């Protein structure tokens, strides 16, 4: 518990330990050579995830400092000055997630603009912000770190998009743009009376359990953030109405592990079309893989010229075309996998 605020130190030590194993015979302070039973050079790549995205630049440069020949590809999601393809800037993970939403809409002949959606993970995050930017539905609720935003008429899309571009939480939403039936309850609020007369005693508890609230009903549920196993076999029953119908018709998991497998099976048995995280959110992995391919394909000089942001702030034409191709690959792969799963 005393080390919870030392994430960067832990990450740096972990990276050094991995490099000690990869760079045989060059480990500081180790006199004997490491036992090598593989007999060939090994390469390992680190991709960004929650809490580590900001460390990718350091790790790449540290690998270079230690003489790793694969330093350009050691981490992905790096800054553009280092030839990286930032997942959040280009919405790489969201591009695959949203293909599953579009696949359901296409297969069932739905109108996206008429579909309602409930979203966890707000406009301040990678997935949440890009889901807002790329979608055209009628979002009725967003839950993020700051609280709950709800409007059964549909949350004002222009205001949502403004927050998504600014990467701000819903606490910055202009509440004047809510309908009379809408509300915003922040985590530090107490004794709030909702438009329907419901009294919210504690904003934090309300936020933490709102995904199980009867108001959190929509055609689509797209979790873009939240705690792992937020819905398990013990509470999945709260997503059902008294008549046995489910509060959501379609679930596309953007966030990892939001549902347990038992909860997924219970929902699918009830007729919910559910696509799990391992399929839906792999766009970021695809982007990282293709970033590694570019880094390994070029010499340092070529990489600096073709993939790195220039001193004047411009991005090379090759880089821009390559990123566009990565986006197309992500969307095409996601659409094809959706079709396979649907079949």
Automatic annotation (TrEMBL):
<protein>
    <submittedName>
        <fullName>NAD-dependent glutamate dehydrogenase</fullName>
        <ecNumber>1.4.1.2</ecNumber>
    </submittedName>
</protein>
<keyword id="KW-0560">Oxidoreductase</keyword>
């Amino acid at each position: 518990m005393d080390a919870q605020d030392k994430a960067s130190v832990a990450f740096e030590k972990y990276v050094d330990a991995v490099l000690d194993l990869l760079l045989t015979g060059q480990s500081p302070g180790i006199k004997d050579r490491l036992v090598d039973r593989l007999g060939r050079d090994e390469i390992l790549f680190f991709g960004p995830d929650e809490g580590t995205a900001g460390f990718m630049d350091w790790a790449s440069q540290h690998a270079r400092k230690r003489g790793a020949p694969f330093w350009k590809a050691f981490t992905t999601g790096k800054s553009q000055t280092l030839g990286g393809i930032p997942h959040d800037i280009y919405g790489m993970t969201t591009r695959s997630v949203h293909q599953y939403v579009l696949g359901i809409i296409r297969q069932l002949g739905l109108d996206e603009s008429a579909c309602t959606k409930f979203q966890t993970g707000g406009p301040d995050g990678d997935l949440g912000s890009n889901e807002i930017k790329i979608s055209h539905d009628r979002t009725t609720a967003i839950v993020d770190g700051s609280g709950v935003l709800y409007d059964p008429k549909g949350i004002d899309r222009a205001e949502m998009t403004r927050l998504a571009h600014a990467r701000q939480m819903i606490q910055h939403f202009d509440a004047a743009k809510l309908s009379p039936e809408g509300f915003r309850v922040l985590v530090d609020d107490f004794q709030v009376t909702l438009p329907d007369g419901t009294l919210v005693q504690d904003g934090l508890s309300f936020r933490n359990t709102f995904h199980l609230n009867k108001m959190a009903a929509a055609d689509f549920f797209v979790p873009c953030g939240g705690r792992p196993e937020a819905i398990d076999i013990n509470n999945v029953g709260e997503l059902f109405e008294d008549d046995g119908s489910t509060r959501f018709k379609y679930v596309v998991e953007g966030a990892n592990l939001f549902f347990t497998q038992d909860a997924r099976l219970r929902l699918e048995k009830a007729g919910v079309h559910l696509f799990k995280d391992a399929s839906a959110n792999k766009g970021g992995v695809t982007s990282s893989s293709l970033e590694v391919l570019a880094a390994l394909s070029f010499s340092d000089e070529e990489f600096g010229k073709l993939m790195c942001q220039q001193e004047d702030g411009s991005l090379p034409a090759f880089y821009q075309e390559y990123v566009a191709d990565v986006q197309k690959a992500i969307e095409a792969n996601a659409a094809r996998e959706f079709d396979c799963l649907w079949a």
